[in-house]
Queue: 4 jobs
Job 1
Amino acid sequence: MMTVEQTLLDRSGSKCELCTSTSNLSVYNVPPNSDESADQSILLCDTCLGQVKNSETADANHWRCLNDSMWTPVPAVQVMAWRQLNVLKSEGWAQDLLEMLYLEDDIKAWAESEMTDDDSEEATVDSNSAILNDGDTVTLIKDLVVKGANFTAKRGTVVKNISLTSNPKHIEGRVNGTRIVLVSAFLKKA
Ligand SMILES: [Zn+2]
């Protein structure tokens, strides 16, 4: 079986999936992710990785590479291109690219789900933007590897009587008798 890194090296032709650099490539799990599979990861060079992790250091000129890489068919790369264009949207060219970058609804939801928002009153919403409340029942829309509990919660699993948390991106619920934190973007209100 291929490792995630090998899969990504194959997919990218051993290049950074955002800027095509070949130096110091590493696997980046695109947050929020339900597992660390290749589908939810991208290969980044050290320059891209550093600026993704610390958006204040973003060098606008470096990110002109998105002009090409945003047309990728790979959803995880589309998500990161969209997010970096948002970081830079005070630049006219980045705003123009953002307007051209069409994302399917589920990919857009993924891209938006990690945007920091100053609005602390933000509601907890599911993958369809339906508001979630304590006691609701939800269904998983992706397989979810439960870290530390050694099982995978399958897509379609019903979780009853959820609790909201202080983080609007997360709820808590009981799966297989274990109380776990679930990413609200991967849930559908029943
Ligand atoms: Zn790069």
Job 2
Amino acid sequence: MRELSDRTATNLKKVLEVALTLPGNYHRFLQAGLIDSNSNIKQLVTDWQTAFTNLQPIDKQTVRQNPGLFLATADDLVYRGMTSGTSGDFFTYFAGNEWNQARLLARQRALSWWGIDEQVPIINLASRLQPLRVNDISLIGNITADWLQSLKELLQIQPAVIRGYPSRLSEVAAALVGHSIPAVLGVICTGEVLFDFQKQLLESIFQTSVINEYGCQETGISGLSCPECGRLHLDVDRCFYEIIDGELVTTDLFNYTMPLIRYKCGDRIQLDFDACLCGRSGFTAQILGRIQEQIKTQQGWKYPGEICLPKFPGILNYQIVKQNQVDVDIWLQLEPQQVLDLSPLQLWLENLFGEVRGRVIVDSSDLSQLENTQSCSDLEWIEWVTKKSWREWLELGLLPAGSAREIALLLKSLIQPTVMVNSGISPIAQQAIARLLQPSPCRESPVELMAVRVLLLACSFLADRPTRQNIYHRAQQRLAEMNCGEYSAMVDLLIPSLGFDSNTAISIWENTNLPDSGKLDVFNIQHLLAAFNLAASTAKRENPNIAIAWKPILSILIGDLNFWASRFHIQILASWWELVNGKALASSIHRQTTGDSFLDAWLTWRQAILGDGASATTALSQLQATATLPTEIARVELEQGYAKLLWQEPLNPVEWLEKIHKNAGLISANLPDRDIDPIPWIPLLWKLAPLWLAGGESELAYQCLIAAAPPDMRASGFERLAREMNYKQSTICDRSNIPLP
Ligand SMILES: [Zn+2]
């Protein structure tokens, strides 16, 4: 083993001490002699550094079989991530606050080499990469004329660094030939091997430096190329690197939540321990590719990073896919107006693969064409968004042909953003809101009503409070001018109160003619789901006790809505407002009973436990007495759990496992049933997971944490879109090497 620095030795010892207590490591540690088999106390032997070199590495498949056996704590979970890998080959890992701080610090440090500070936005392009820092943005979707326009608009608003997979960035660059492009402050390539021809293309189109980034979150690996020499420096503070039998084996030095010791991440990397001329300490690396990505060439098996992909005259960008022993597909993006001579490419292919049949596919996608959309009438579209599934609407790409078109486009950009920013909404959606705020006298009234409803919904996406209030009041005024008393529109008018400050919200409740009863339409439900994000942050600010006890409060709100959607009364919305604000609304709102005895009892119960709790016993007996349906009886048990969380009463892990098993469908193998919605149980699962872990039920604890993923409507929409279009791809790959399924 290399000589360890004092700092690395201290950090490594600390993480080993956590790891040795975990059932997933015990035998491995014992075999290596890291722990003393004769001692009753599990502790590291004195010469642990020597024993460590005997420790058998583990791989992703081993962890994936029983991930719970590697879970050290179920508290302080700050980060939840998914390992990379093909389908069925990944697992969810967790990390805590120290890990997250170390990660952000390492990134900040590396970016500063290039003069990229926190003020400079990083725009992630056409990938699954999400905005990480406050000013960061992600632009996803197919590379169309509209998409390129969005990119230019974003760069015009503020010069930025762009970041993405090199193959996608090269596609974007090739599509931008001949365009004038606002200033780009740097191009960060990540996630795939960066080839020289791509680097040259990116440099020439964006007129800026190309930075190579490498990271693997579950291992703690992170690195950036240096400006002076372009060599990839790995951050040695966060991670301990070893090469064992030619393979990279890592130990994340800061993950005490789910420590992975001597872990094979599946990437092929060459480490270079010679000092870099730039003077930075530590070693540099060259990424060769993933273990499964080997390519059979005339010179033997090679990793992509070991093959030189040159630039060919007339060709901007290309991709090589070897389909089988003889057929090679070559996808090309060409320089404009070129008479193409393919012979240099042909010669190169022959040298690489020997005699093969090349099939050339020239990308001639006409970027002036819009994405696939279907037209419908304004009224048909209104029917979709108020009565039918929004998912289907988005999948069909249905857009109204009339004056409702701009309303539909705004709604789409809010709920399925292709531009994602860390706070608020994209500058492009803001411009669409500004256009919709201009009253249009010739709009037919159902279209005008939808315009107002979409503006009210937009309030839940606007981070800036004065802007939000201004838009709200203008929408409110337009609704008043229409003299509209439609139930669903009146509900929309009250929903934004969940995100307003108390005074504004109370005046909304007092000055709105409260609707008696009616049914929520599909738009209302989507509006509520969108508004809950803002309501959750209101709770963190206005009612921190409840936000801590019922964490994440979003899951309580969504669970309540799922339960009450079909028997909704406006009092439920009022009670949510009181929940997030920790204040009572005027009693007149509650005076009338709803006529639904279980709902009335539930409203009284929630008021009782959220108040001083004095009348909780009476309220509970009333709730129990009115519960008749099985779902209502389950609800009562859930509500008692909520009360225990609020009053910080101890929960018996065995008793509650049974309750959750019975009510939320934990199946007999003690794992949550994926068909049953665990959302309302999430706060209890969070609380119980550490108790189960302490009781030795590590797999159960792990599965609970998986089931307790806090819902995030916006991120999941983004994730769906990104998965469909902006996946990683190999610039060169050998499909004849991949076994058929
Ligand atoms: Zn360097």
Job 3
Amino acid sequence: MTRSLLIFAVAVLALFAGAGDVLAQDAEVRGISTDWQWGFQDAASPIMVDIHWFYDWYLLPMMIIISAFVAGLMGYIFIKFRRSANPKPSRNTNNTLLEVLWTGVPILILIGIVIPSLRLLYFEEIVPEADMTVVATGNQWFWSYEYPDQGGIEFDSFLVPEDELEAGQPRLLTTDTQVVLPAGKVIHFLVTSSDVIHSWALPAGGIKTDAVPGRVNDFWLEISDPGIYYGQCSELCGVDHGYMPIMVDVRSPEDFDLWVADQQAALGIEPEVDLASTAQD
Ligand SMILES: [Cu+2]
């Protein structure tokens, strides 16, 4: 029986492993869900790479093996000990070895889950040295963004209503302004809210962080490939909760600098002045 279980587990795993490839067809839009998608979106950040590994190659096989084992055991009991085959049931009430095993083995399994799980949590939690900071503020019902390192660029980001969408823009995910980020850089995100609890979530980045009024939460995000990545507010925040999407536009660092210069010009922000050199004059 163990052999067939193993084959079943491998078959199911193969299905899951192939699921991510669907997204690769469109190079530009990288972070979006697809029809009939199984499993997660393709990993775009180091955190999501680890989440993929932890789920696909650790938790999921474990769940499949445990579920198959329990289902198999129940099937075996239903047949072997049905009334017609076993009219006189055994009156045994305990078995020390079995009891030690069914207590001890689950404990070992849980310890086996806790170790990589905590390792992953700490990896997410500890922000490496960041290249820049972005502040995301949740509002009923849109997001505002600030770039303190780029002279305080700030803007609001609203949903583009369905009747104003251009061809190829996904409904309920497209926003009028995007969070533009440089590829391959560590971004330190500060997340807060101006009214109720929202949640800044980007599945491909492995991010879901609550935006709580009066409190600043943070996370780090490093997206390696330029492209468009979609997310949504993921905390029930009121009537338009489903209408405050997140659209991240990751560009090459050079294109990002161009965007920054553009934004600064539009907002009338003086380009960064080197204070040290000014003081020497
Ligand atoms: Cu919200």
Job 4
Amino acid sequence: MGPDKITGVSTTAISLAKSRCRVLIGEGLLQQIGNEIRRYVSRRTCGVISDSNVAPLFADSVTESLTSAGFGTTLIAIPGGEKSKTLRQAGTICDRMIAAGLDRQSFLVGVGGGVIGDISGFVAAIYHRGIPHIQLPTTLLAMVDSSIGGKTGVNTRDGKNLIGAIHHPLLVIDDLNALKTLPVREFNQGFAEIVKHAVIADAKMFRMLQSWQATEAVALQQLIRRNIQIKSKIVAKDEQDQTGERALLNFGHTVGHAIERAGSYRKFLHGEALSLGIIAACAVSIKRAGLPQEQRDAVVDLLHRFELPTRLPPSFPRPKILDALKFDKKFEGGKIRFVVTPSIGAANVTTSVTMADIREAVDEL
Ligand SMILES: NC(=O)c1ccc[n+]([C@@H]2O[C@H](COP(=O)([O-])OP(=O)(O)OC[C@H]3O[C@@H](n4cnc5c(N)ncnc54)[C@H](O)[C@@H]3O)[C@@H](O)[C@H]2O)c1
Ligand SMILES: [Zn+2]
């Protein structure tokens, strides 16, 4: 199910009403980025933030295109990977931007996966009290999930995303060609979030995924578009993450995050841990929300289709998963707010789930 066979598609645009964010999805967009951005931004200077894996692949095209469209451009590349998503690294980026003469009339472009999206968005939120942010996601996960919704931030010693801001990008540009260099494992982990979206909100997309072939760009383009719509619709109902609607997006994440943490963030990629978390959430949903067993089995089959893990390896430190659950933000105040699905395509938050239910679900993995 590799990303290398994508061919032929024309650009599609989505406007996300509430956040005023515009998303373009197409091929070869990174090479035309300057002119595209010129249509939306009247500013003259920008910083381009990327990482050490992505910059050698795409930074030249992006900066050349920006420069030829008349933008003064400063490229800042940081080391690739989650370890770069820190307050210290955000500070270093700010210092370099100041040294390059970028000011409150500048804007910031993030070129990379979710790590770059989150840290560049955070810097854009705080630099001169906020400058416009443009995201050029280069992973499937970033296209269907992290670039949408306006959450930006960095990790601290004690946990992920503990410091951040809501700062919606002005523009998101998804170039399908960028996915061609993405390792297959990274590509597949994006499908965990896609399956999550299908389970919580879109039974039709779930059925479509059951016979999915990643050979046509147009199919991938439509799939990304559909996922952006699902996420942005949920986010629009709960922009500041306060009414609980946005919590539906956490489906599978309670146990998923705990598995990531128990594996010291090395054993599983986020989407892989999420795959297991989705299966645990389905087990809880059978017990507490009446999810039919055969629908749970269909979810497991679908995750397996995208080469995502559906069982914990025997050597995995299972007790650590339950220890890690207490770090979860959803456990604040001692009450468990757990997202369940009564049937594929629907989800709700419940407080009826007990720690024993979760332990049982983890034991089954
Ligand atoms: N803000 C949100 O709402 C939100 C939602 C979900 C996840 N996130 C965050 O996103 C991050 C995970 O995102 P990710 O999975 O994209 O991780 P990532 O940004 O670390 O990218 C994964 C790896 O792939 C490399 N890479 C990226 N694009 C590539 C390409 N086109 N070709 C080759 N290599 C490429 C990167 O250098 C990195 O090594 C986490 O920090 C997570 O907290 C944020
Ligand atoms: Zn996730």
